[in-house]
Amino acid sequence: MLIVDEASQMKIGEFSLAISSLKPDGRLVLAGDDMQLPPLIQGEYPEPDDGLPGLHNSVFSYLRYKDSGNVYTCQLLENFRMNTTLSRFPAETLYGDGYIPANAKVAGRKLVINDPGKEESEVSEFLRWVIDPDYPLTLCIVDNVRATVDNMVEADLTARIACYLKKCMINHKTSETFTDTLKGHKQFWGSGLFIICPHHAQIRLVRKFLNRSMTWYYPPFVGTVDKMQGQESQVVIASYGVSDIETALSEANFIYSLNRLNVTVTRARTKCILFISRPLLAQSYELLKNKDAMAGLNHMINLRRFCEQNGDERIFQAGFTEGGEGAEVTVYRGRV
User: What is the pLDDT of residues 145-196, one digit of tens each?
Assistant: First the structure.
C-alpha cells in the first residue's frame, strides 16, 4: 500500500517517482483537498484542451476531475479544528452541509479573553467589538485608503488587535494569559495567533507596527498563507493590504485565489478576522473574463453575506490609525 498525504500539493511528475515503488497488485490511497493550496510552480501554463488539470496541477486535483461515473473519492466530513461558525461558512460554500465539527467539544470552542474593560475610547471600543468571542467570524471592510501592496491602516489595526489579544487572551493549554517571557511569547505565536498577509511588503509593515507597540521576546508569526497550510491557531488575522484595483487586477489570480482565501479562513480554531479593502469587492469587466478570479471574488462576497445574515455590523472611523484620516472600517460579525 502506498499512502500519499497532502496529495493536493504533489505534482504528477513527483507522484510518478513515488508510484514506481508500488507493486502491480498494490493499493493506492491519496489524501488531500483540492480546495486548498495547489503545488508551488513558477510560470503560467495554458488550460489543457481536454478540460482536465494540467501536468503542473496536483495529482489529487487531476484524479478528482476524473472522479465521475465510477466514484472512488470519499469525502472526509469530520472537522477536528473549527467551531460551529467557522465550520459552517466553508460547509455552505464549498464542502456541503455534511461538513461539521467532529464532536460537541470542537463545535463549542470559543475564544476566551480576560477583558480589562477599563479604558473607554474609540480604539478600545473597536477592539472589543472586533474581538468579541461570541462572533467567531469577523470581516472588516476598509474604505477610503489607497494602497498598493502595503496598507498602513490595516497594519496598524492588525497590530493593535494582536497586542490586545496578547494582553487578554487565555492560553487554552494553561488557562492563563500568555506570560511576557520567551516561553509565553513563543506559545502565543505558536498556537495563539497567526497573522497572514499576501505580500511581503505588508508583512514587513505589520511587523514594524507590532515591534513598535510591544517588546517581543519571540518573533511574531506574520507570513503568507503558504506557511500556514496544514497548521492551526486559536486566532487568525488576515490583512489583504491591497486597495488599489489596478494592482489587484494585475495579479488577479493571486489576490482573488479562492484556494488561498479558503486556507486563510480555515486555519483558526476559535476566531478569524479578515481585513479587505472595499475596492477588492467590486466586479469589473476584467474580472468577469477571468473564471478563477471571479470564483475567489464570489467567495469574498459570500463571506460578507454570511456575516450579514448571521450577525451584525457597525461602522468605525479609523482616524486613530497612522495615515487613517478619513478612513472607515465596516465590521461584519458572524455566528451560528
Answer: 988 889 999 999 999 999 999 999 999 888 899 999 999 999 999 999 999 9
Q: Measure the N-to-C terminal CA separation of the chain; round to a whole number of Å.
A: 42
User: Cell for 161?
Assistant: 488587535
Percent of the chain past pLDDT 70, that is, above it, reads: 93
| Beta strands 328-334 and 137-143, pairing class | antiparallel
Q: Crossing angle of helices 200-213/152-168, nearest 10°? A: 50
DSSP 146-167: --SS--HHHHHHHHHHHHHHHH
| 12 membership: H or E segment, kind and range | helix 12-19
- Kindly tell me the burial class for residue 114, based on how many C-beta atoms sit within 10 Å of its own C-beta (0-12, 13-18, 19 or more): exposed
Note if the pTM is more than 0.85: yes
53's grid cell: 488539470
Whole-angstrom Cα distance, residue 321 to residue 311? Answer: 26
88: Cβ–Cβ under 8 A, 6 or more apart, which residues? 306, 310, 336
Q: Give pLDDT tens digits for 193-236.
A: 999 999 999 999 999 999 999 999 999 999 999 888 778 999 99
Confidence check: pLDDT of 89 > 70? yes
Give yes or no for a contact between 274 and 300, defined as CB atoms under 8 angstroms apart: no
Set of cell numbers at residue 64: 478528482
Dihedrals phi, psi of 198, to nearest 5 degrees = -75, -30
